[in-house]
Design brief:
With 186 residues, this protein is α/β, with parallel strands linked by helices. It has a single domain (2-176), classed as 3-Layer(aba) Sandwich (Aspartate Aminotransferase, domain 2). The chain has helices at 2-6, 17-28, 42-50, 112-122, 148-163; strands at residues 10-14, 32-36, 53-57, 65-66, 71-73, 88-92, 105-109. Helix 3 links the parallel strand 2 and strand 3 (53-57).
Length: 186
């Protein structure tokens, strides 16, 4: 339903946008990202966690921004048919977002191959709809999937979210991260 709303071929539900970004970075093998000075703090923390180099950007973004040439932080984007082809667009359904589920996220992607790989990454290296003990787990995975209860809540709230006009968001809604002591050394 989320893929259909955004006009993307596929959507992989995750437990949060930060993990959607992390999985996209792992999937693409990114080794350098661009981080706007005004964004959510988990973006540079994720780079630190994954030992990925990052550079600060003074980008004055609205709705979304590129982290790499094909990974987009679209945490505050809520617009029908806004998927950008050949990208991994990371969404948030955190409690302050337009589709407010308390917690949750998704990765919009273009190919079934990427969908399967990202699904396995988000789901402990396994595929859904088959008991894990009956699977030959052949790739690394993480426990970053959206719970069925959260997904159900999203299904129930989606019609109202589609009919409601979102509040525009962008760089001005975030503090300058470079002013935090933790980033003074970077």
């Amino acid at each position: 339903m989320i893929a259909e709303f955004y006009g993307a071929p596929y959507a992989v539900a995750t437990d949060c946008c930060t993990h959607a970004i992390e999985l996209s970075l792992r999937h693409t093998g990114a080794d350098l990202i661009s981080v706007p000075t005004h964004t959510y703090i988990s973006v540079p923390f994720t780079a630190e966690k994954l030992n990925i180099k990052y550079v600060w950007s003074d980008l004055l973004w609205e709705y979304y921004y590129y982290i790499t040439n094909n990974i987009i932080d679209a945490a505050v984007l809520w617009q029908r048919n806004s998927y950008i082809p050949k990208t991994y667009m990371c969404l948030s359904f955190q409690f302050k977002k337009h589709l407010s589920l308390g917690r949750g996220g998704a990765i919009l992607c273009e190919s079934k191959k990427d969908y399967i790989a990202l699904k396995k990454l988000s789901y402990d290296g396994r595929l859904p709809d088959l008991p894990w003990a009956e699977q030959n787990i052949d790739s690394m995975g993480f426990h970053y999937y959206m719970t069925p209860e959260t997904a159900q809540q999203g299904i129930e709230k989606l019609p109202e979210a589609i009919e409601t006009i979102p509040i525009p968001k962008g760089w001005q809604d975030y503090p300058n991260l470079t002013q935090n002591s933790i980033f003074k050394k970077h």
